[in-house]
Amino acid sequence: MAGTDEDAVAAADDALYVLTAVLLTPAKFPSVLGDDYPEACAALGLPPLADGYGLVLGQDGDGARWTVVVDDVSLVAVAVASWDCGMEYDLSPDERSVVTALPGWPLAVAVAAPGVPVPHDPGPESTDQPPLCPPDTTVWGPAQRRLGADEIALQWAQWREQIDDAEFPTPDADADSPNGAPGDGAGAGAVGAARAADEAVAPDDRTGAGTFRHGGVRRVLAEARAYIDTPPPLGRVRSSFAPGDARTLRADGPGWSLVARTDDIAFVLLDEEPGEVLPVGRGPSLPGLLEALDRMAVRPS
Fold this sequence. Notes:
about 20% strand; 9 strands; Integral membrane protein
């Protein structure tokens, strides 16, 4: 058993009331746990197996929180998909698929099993390791930044409608700008937490970072471009379904997250910019960057 002992597994398996489950795979993992798949696995003390895991979160008969790790990824995927569609599904992993049982929950769970004590961490008699706990998202930092990117990807239409394309500078409009930066930019029309990046992606820019006046945006685009030549850890770049022929791209790196549609613009979030969302216009270079990232991205099977 990896990460715990057989007694802990037995304790978790004894009348475990399943509350929820999530996938932990290269293409789909709780991004709050890390910028990539190996980092998310390390947060749970698990080796980053190529096929990934399913995480089953529940309570035992005493109300203690347990995270049961299984290698039957397809079973968990079916359960999650059924629940997402509002269907009932009795998730009961075969004990032979159990890899380990970890005390606590790595994610916040808002529900509890009926008829058992309120959720609490297992006592020391049940496990000899510290219980898992969700990352702190009460203050801005990597975990909160990644959750923000998750929300943008999930609610793309709502975020996109805050951006007026007419406010993206055009090459002609930029021709007389003080720095002579051609291209489109990110307009200042976003509301709420969204704030504009200042300039556009310049044509034929060697770094792919363009001539943004915002140094953080330049750094993100340059680091994303570098992924094409030097592949990052598995899961740093992921591609998922989007309407039409487009794909939703998600890329993360040290201190940053990028969300984009391959047929549209991108949004950048930075650790050093608490609560800010920086729209990035397509310009002449962004489409090629997004296409290249999509080709190398991990996709759900």
